[in-house]
Structure formats: C-alpha cells, structure tokens
C-alpha cells in the first residue's frame, strides 16, 4: 500500500513539474536569421528532420541568390492566438521577410497540432505568385503529405515547386503551364472550364442527334418524342444521385469535401449530361413502341433506332438498359420477320 502511494505521489509530482508544450508568440518564436543570413527555416519543436531543414535552407538560399526574393518557413506545434492568418501576418511583418524596397517575401507558416498552414506574401510577390496558386500549392503538396504525418516530404515538395516557379524566367507562364487548374475559373486556360464546356457541346450535339433520328423514324405519326422534358427527367435523376452520394460520403466514408470540389466539375457534368441523354434515348424508344402497333414495323423501327444510336447508347450507361431491352426483343423474334 505504501509503495503504491509513493508511486502515485511521484507520478503526480512529475506530471506537475513536466514542462508544458510551448505555445509560441511572435516575440519568442526563434528567428532563423539569428544563426546567419543563409538560414530561412524556424523549426523550434524539431518537427522537421535536420537534413530536411538543411535542404530547405538551400532552396531558400538559391531563391534569394537568383531572384532576391526571401522564402521563409516556420513549423511549430502550437502558437498563442486564435487565427493562423493573423499570427503569420504579424510574424511576417515583425521579421521583415523580403527586401524592403521590393516587398518580395513569402512565408509558409505551419502549426502541426492545429492542422493549419498559411502562406503570407508581400505585395511584390503577389504579382508572381497569386493567392489562388499558393492555395493550390497547399492542396496539392502539403495536405496529402500532412494527412500521412509526413511533414518533411510535404514541405519539401511545396518548396521545390515554389523554387521552380520563382527561378523561372517567366514565372507567370510557368505557373499557368504547371498548374493550369489554379487559374481563374472563367479563363479558357483553365482545363476545368474547358473540359466542362466541351462536355456540354458534345452531349448537346448527341441530344439533338437522338431527337432528329427518333423524329425521322416517327415521321407521319402523332405521338412525337419530347424535346425538353427529358432534360428535366435527367436533372431529377441527378438530384436523387447527389442525395445518395451525400448520404454515402458523409455518413460512411466521411470525406465529402474530397468529392464536391471544383476540380471534379467535368465529372459531374458528364454524369448529368449522360443521364439527360439516357432519358432522351428512353423517350425515343418508348415513343417508337407506342406508335408502331404492328410488330414487324416496330422491329424495323427499333432496328433503325439502334443502328443510328448505338454510339450515344454506349456513351451513357443508363441507356444500356434500353439497348439490352431492344436486343432482347430482337432475340425473342428471331426468324419471325425478314428485316
């Protein structure tokens, strides 16, 4: 009993005297320049390996030597305050990152325990590295590696990309070439917009083609295929599908933010347009069946429908059910008619 009491007391006292994890302020956070002008990384909690810090210092030194821009990196466990932006901005101004006359500094601030990172750039840097591109750098290089607790690799990859851009003879052109998805959404240099527009043009042409073929087959009949209604039917299917995916990715996989991102817009456009096209194909098939009462005429009409629309049918998986139904009808009627 006495041994247990002494053990508990020692543990309690040890916990009381154990130093609390540092929460840095702008004033007490170690400035790497104290070690010399060739140092650009502050890593007081030892989150990064020694060789990583050395490699990052070399990257920043190379940027400074060639471009006169200053790229500083700060990695801590925690800091005093509620806003990573305010803390990083105050730190940026307090340390005076960048040449005073050019205001060409760039700071990458990371708070590991809060799962936060922040880029702060001077006015002279914003023309070379706009905020939209810095955000994309974080999403592409930092976030995936940080999720795997690989802070060294994430920061090295992001820094190497920044180095490549800043050392380029034409930084803006280099950025647009290497990271076109980060450009303005309404720019035709943005592949997200371009791919989405091409998707709409392709499926609009296919939709009108299906309407033309079904209309030609039903020429002379009263019950014509609908032009507008299938669009709303497809949109309704899309809403139902989105509701189901919301349920699946929120309650089962818990990664909804990975699905509903702007970069996935072309895929969503494809699904929506494929559903609309499928509704149009189904409407055409239904009208042919309704209009032709004679089985031989119906078979002939359906054969023409498949002959001209096999490619649109293959492009939209939902229309495979129509194709299967028509082919199954042909199979049942093998030998009955001369087609």
From TrEMBL:
The chain crosses the membrane at residues 192-210, 231-253, 265-284, 305-327. It comes from the Bacteria. InterPro entries: TPM_dom. Residues 42-163 form the TPM domain. Gene3D superfamilies: 3.10.310.50. Residues 1-22 form the signal peptide. Keywords: Membrane, Signal, Transmembrane, Transmembrane helix. This is Uncharacterized membrane protein YgcG, contains a TPM-fold domain.
């Amino acid at each position: 009993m006495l041994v247990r009491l002494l053990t508990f007391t020692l543990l309690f006292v040890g916990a009381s005297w154990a130093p609390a994890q540092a929460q840095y302020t702008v004033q007490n956070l170690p400035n790497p320049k104290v070690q010399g002008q060739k140092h650009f990384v502050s890593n007081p909690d030892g989150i990064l390996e020694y060789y990583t810090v050395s490699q990052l210092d070399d990257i920043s030194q190379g940027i400074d030597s060639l471009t006169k821009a200053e790229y500083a990196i700060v990695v801590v466990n925690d800091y005093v305050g509620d806003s990573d932006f305010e803390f990083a901005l105050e730190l940026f101004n307090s340390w005076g990152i960048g040449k005073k006359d050019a205001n060409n500094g760039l700071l990458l601030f990371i708070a590991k325990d809060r799962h936060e990172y922040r880029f702060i750039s001077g006015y002279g840097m914003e023309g070379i590295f706009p905020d939209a591109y810095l955000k994309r750098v974080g999403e592409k290089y930092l976030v995936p590696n940080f999720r795997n607790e690989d802070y060294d690799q994430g920061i090295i990859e992001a820094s190497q990309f920044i180095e490549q851009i800043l050392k380029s003879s034409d930084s803006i052109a280099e950025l647009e070439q290497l990271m076109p998805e980060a450009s303005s959404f309404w720019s035709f240099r943005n592949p997200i917009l371009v791919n989405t527009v091409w998707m709409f043009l392709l499926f609009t042409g296919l939709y009108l083609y299906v309407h033309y073929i079904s209309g030609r087959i039903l020429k002379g009949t009263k019950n014509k295929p609908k032009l507008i209604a299938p669009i709303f039917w497809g949109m309704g299917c899309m809403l139902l599908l989105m509701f189901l995916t919301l349920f699946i990715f929120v309650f089962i996989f818990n990664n909804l933010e990975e699905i509903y991102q702007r970069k996935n817009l072309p895929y969503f456009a494809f699904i929506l347009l494929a559903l609309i096209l499928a509704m149009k194909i189904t409407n055409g098939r239904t009208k042919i069946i309704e209009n032709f009462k004679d089985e031989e005429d119906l078979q002939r009409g359906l054969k023409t429908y498949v002959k001209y629309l096999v490619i649109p049918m293959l492009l939209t998986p939902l229309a495979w059910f129509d194709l299967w139904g028509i082919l199954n009808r042909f199979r049942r009627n093998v030998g009955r008619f001369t087609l």
